[in-house]
Write a structure and sequence with these properties.
Number of helices: 4
Strand order of the largest sheet: 8-7-9-14-15
Shape: globular
CATH class: Alpha Beta
Distance between the termini: 12 Å
CATH superfamily: Creatinase/methionine aminopeptidase superfamily
Structural class: alpha+beta
Strand content: 15-25%
Helix content: 25-40%
Bound molecules: cobalt (II) ion
CATH architecture: Alpha-Beta Complex
Number of strands: 15
Largest sheet: 5 strands, antiparallel
């Protein structure tokens, strides 16, 4: 998982230095796919088929690139051009050596509205606070409540119908990791458990991310911006070990 996670992190570092206004999202996707294959990995999301939804075609790209009111699963396109003031969430998964790594970051393009900038920073902090609860002996929803409390203290809303997940030989494993919940509830965390923790936080009051029939991209209910950060971590005794670092 360290090997696949390192590639994910290196891709997101590369995206961070290349992303700019005027660029098509598909351009970033091609760069990412080339980098992953050059380093002996396979893109985890490419051809991913959602369980139990025959209306949705297998995922067609390496990255999910979700801009402003798009919460997650934005499909890269030649026609989607990044603009000044956008917030751009880039999610990347890599499979290597039998294991997946999964991580996301939200990039700010040029001058971003101060309130939107705060949304991005708070979402990053939500991930940090969630990770700090991922220690052996805690309960799963200690992670969830740490994320929720921090987001709500700024008046932001938590997207409830999209969640983090266990991860390993499959991209999505048990248990679901919600970004809301009550402390001291949920399964007890044990050393060695691997989780993808991924707060999706919105500026308005949206509690769900909505997709049109047959489409991948999921947007906020009220069209307000949303941010997303994710790391793959391993539960340890004193402090979680982050797999998705360069
Ligand atoms: Co994930």
């Amino acid at each position: 998982m360290r090997a696949s996670g390192a590639i994910v992190a290196q891709v997101l570092d590369m995206i961070g230095s290349e992303i700019r206004e005027g660029m098509a999202t598909l351009h970033l996707d091609s760069m990412a796919e080339t980098y992953i294959r050059d380093h002996g990995g396979v893109p985890s999301f490419l051809n991913y088929a959602p369980k139990g939804d025959p209306d949705v075609a297998p995922y067609p790209a390496t990255l999910c690139i979700s801009i402003n009111e798009e919460v997650v699963h934005g499909v890269p396109s030649n026609r989607r051009i990044i603009q000044e003031g956008d917030i751009v969430s880039v999610d990347c998964g890599v499979f290597k050596g039998g294991y997946h790594g999964d991580s996301a970051r939200t990039y700010m393009i040029g001058e971003v509205d101060p309130k939107v900038r705060q949304l991005v920073e708070v979402t990053r902090e939500c991930l940090e606070r969630g990770i700090s609860q991922a220690i052996a002996g805690n309960h799963l929803h200690d992670i969830s409540s740490a994320v929720e409390e921090h987001a709500r203290s700024f008046g932001f809303s938590v997207i409830e119908n999209m969640v983090g997940h266990g991860i390993g030989t499959d991209l999505h494993e048990e248990p679901p990791v919600p970004n809301y919940g009550r402390r001291k509830t949920g399964i007890k965390l044990r050393e060695g458990m691997a989780l993808a923790i991924e707060p999706m936080i919105a500026m308005g009051r949206s509690r769900n991310a909505i997709s049109k029939n047959g489409e991948w991209v999921a947007v906020t209910e009220d069209g307000k911006p949303s941010a997303h950060f994710e790391h793959t971590i391993i539960v340890r005794k004193d402090r979680a070990e982050i797999m998705t670092l360069p």
